Amino acid sequence: MRTRKLGALEVGAVGLGCMSFAGFYGETDIATSHDTLDAAREHGMDFLDTAELYGMGRSEEVIGAYLKANPGHGFKIATKGGIVPKPTRHFDNSEAQLRKALEGSLRRLGVDHVDLYYIHRREAERPVEEVVETLVKFIDEGKIGGFGFSEIAPSTLRRAHAVHPVMAVQSEYSLWTRQPELGMIQTCAELGVAFVPFSPVARGMFADRFPDPATFADTDFRKPQPRFQVENFKANCAMIDGFRRFCASRGWSPAGAAIAWTLDQGAHLIPIPGTRSRAHLQQLAEGEAIRFTDEDRHEINRLLPIGWAHGDRYSDGQIVGVERYC
Questions:
Q1: Is 243 in contact with 303 (CB distance < 8 Å)?
Q2: What is the per-residue pLDDT for 115?
Q3: What letter does residue 126 receive in the DSSP assignment?
Q4: Taking CA 176 as the corner, what is the angle to CA 170 and CA 179, rounded to the nearest 5 degrees?
Q5: Where do the NADP-dependent oxidoreductase domain residues begin and end (predicted)?
Q6: Which of 52, 102, 195, 200 is deepest in the core (most CB within 10 A)?
Q7: Residue 26 confidence (pLDDT)
Q8: Predicted pLDDT of residue 154
């Protein structure tokens, strides 16, 4: 697999999002998750993305157990903090809270350093410059290699980057979620910041088979999302069907083509699709090898024009804390 730059690091062009290891999209087990990590290594997917919030540390514990059993793993690790779920969910980017969160993540991962530490959600009331000063302390202490932010606005990135170089910004970005094209992808390119798209396979919509919302457990992250409600879901499936037929005509899996599309949007993009399956992971990795012609790009844009998705990407409760900039 080709590599891309993540700060001073070189990582596989496609990383692995590990939220599913915590059961966000259905139950799994540690053996299946570890088999997925084995497959990631085999395909050169050496950048893992997790968070304190994923299963209240469960994803980090799964990864930590793997790292302990495989000391030569070669993975670069990113994790996140800044969301406090109890007693009521809120955001706290204070030094005390971030230090507590980071130390907990390091303990669960079984490491004394992570390559990248994200602010999972920005605390709007606290100046981002103050937050950066805290993160620089963590760098100086050797606890993190660099830092980033999740779901922020370009203006916030510029303010943070003026204090200390930001390593990465992650946001949802895919063929059905295109908001980052309205400033964030361009700002990251200008500043030399990696842009890390999560959910590049549209929460399973570009898999070989559509997910069935009727089977979603109450804990499934997608269940309250407007795009998966009955009428919106039907309309979204109808749109994607045409894209699937096009992919079949080219000999691509829809998932692989969706990954290839994100990679095609800029050399500074490092998508982090998530899966609990070795077979699905292979399709994701194969996306890195797909090369589009101008004709392919034109047809994809015709089939899935910008803004085509029916329904919002998050429920009203889930979108709290996401910085909206347009």
A1: yes
A2: 98
A3: S
A4: 50
A5: 14-303
A6: 200
A7: 62
A8: 98
The alpha-helical segments, DSSP class H, found in the chain are 30-42, 58-69, 95-109, 128-140, 154-163, 184-191, 230-250, 254-263, 278-286, 294-303
Place of tokens 């200008």: 190
Residue 56 and residue 23 in contact, taking contact as beta carbons nearer than 8 Å: no
Q: Distance (Å, rounded) from C-alpha 236 to C-alpha 74?
A: 38
Domain membership of residue 58 (yes or no) is yes
Angle at 238 between CA 223 and CA 307, to 5 degrees: 75
Could you tell me the CA-to-CA distances from 297 to 6, 284, 309, 325 in Å, in that order?
Answer: 26, 19, 18, 27
Using pLDDT thresholds of 50, 70 and 90, give the confidence band for residue 228: very high
49 neighbors 59 (Cβ within 8 angstroms): no
Question: What's this model's pTM, rounded to 2 decimal places?
Answer: 0.95
**To 5 degrees, how large is the angle CA 40–CA 44–CA 48?**
55
Instruction: Give 229-243 pLDDT, tens digit per residue.
Output: 999 999 999 999 999
In a domain, 18, yes or no: yes
Tell whether 214 is covered by a domain: yes
* 59 SS3 class: helix
Tally of domains within the chain: 1
The answer to whether residue 323 is domain-embedded is: no
Yes or no: say if 78 and 117 are a contact pair by the CB < 8 Å rule.
Answer: yes
CATH for 261: 3.20.20.100
Question: What average pLDDT score do residues 222-251 get?
Answer: 96
Selection from 198, 310, 208, 199 nearest residue 254 by Cα? 208
- Stretch 212-227: mean pLDDT, rounded? 91
- What is the set of active-site residues? 54
Domain with 62 in it: 3-303
